[in-house]
Amino acid sequence: MMLQQIVSQKRRRYIDDKFNIDLTYITDRIIAMSYPARGFESLYRNNIQQVKEFMDCKHPQSYFIFNLCAEQNHQYPKDFFDFRVFNYPTFDHCPPTLDLLCRLVYHAYQILQSNIKNVVVFHCKAGKGRTGLAVCALLSYLSVIANKKQSANDIIKYYGQQRATNNIGLTIRSQIRYVNYLHVLFQNNLQNNQIRQIFIQPSQLNVVGIKTNIQIKNNIIITSNRKGQNYFQNTINQLIINENDEKEQQYKIKQFDIENTLILKNEISIEVPGHFYIYFWANMYINVNNNIVQFSDNEIDFCNKKQIKGAYFSLILKNM
């Protein structure tokens, strides 16, 4: 038990006379937990048998589990929980597609509406990031249909307060961005199937404002595939120096022209390997402005914040 508590870190645990598990009631009918593990992994994560006993004790025949793990080694027989398990596979540290996220929200909402005793339980591996995105998406929908004056940030903050002892739940910026996407869609009474399907063709990627002499490797990944299979090689690695009069500091622009034909649909990730590693997801229907997709340093996942502080990244698109 000591090892499980160490691994759960700052996630709030459910503790009473009978149970001590990495599980949190976000509301009385929405539960977040870490992966219900078997074998060796159950020594430091939730034990699947204990989770089963908890659910049968607290919510007999009325709990429905949403497994958000895409990893094959984090699946389990659905009959263990009496076939009340639904898979919405999402890769670690990534948001799902808006389509998948919308389907998950409507599915969970229907379960809650069908019986007042029903509860929905979300888990990924640690039960924090992907789980938090799903929980916040559902809370957003419930907030909008109840006409509550809550922002996406209010919902994200509430989730953090409920799930973590340090009040910080969602930290991956792409996941936070997708909560904001959905909140806008729900507020405008849009379902994902009402979003126009778009195709985009990148022509240039600019990395602007790097303040240190950093090398970017030639392989940059831009893809709309969650498995990251679309690559392009930069044909121009041009370094442009601009003077900043106010700070008398040189800012560098890395410019990558994309000559080969690369057509993407709806959602993209950009991954820039090298000395500083950049990675993020975005939805093109929402983020594109005059054929430019631009993100500042505080919107990027997984990067050395000191080296890119004040930088921004822009993807120039061709007209389709």
TrEMBL record:
Q: Which PROSITE patterns match?
A: PPASE_TENSIN, TYR_PHOSPHATASE_1, TYR_PHOSPHATASE_2
Keyword Transcription listed? The answer is no
Assigned keywords, A-Z: Hydrolase
Tell me the ranges covered by the Tyrosine specific protein phosphatases domain, including all copies.
99-163
Any stretches that span the bilayer, and where are they? none
Q: What start-end ranges are recorded for coiled-coil regions in this protein?
A: none
Per UniProt, residues of the Phosphatase tensin-type domain are 12-189
Q: Establish whether keyword Glycosyltransferase is in the entry.
A: no
- Say which enzyme class the record assigns: hydrolase
- What EC number(s) has UniProt assigned to this enzyme? 3.1.3.67
Known PANTHER family for this protein? PHOSPHATASE WITH HOMOLOGY TO TENSIN, PHOSPHATIDYLINOSITOL 3,4,5-TRISPHOSPHATE 3-PHOSPHATASE AND DUAL-SPECIFICITY PROTEIN PHOSPHATASE PTEN
**Protein known as:** phosphatidylinositol-3,4,5-trisphosphate 3-phosphatase
Q: Which species is the source of this protein?
A: Hexamita inflata
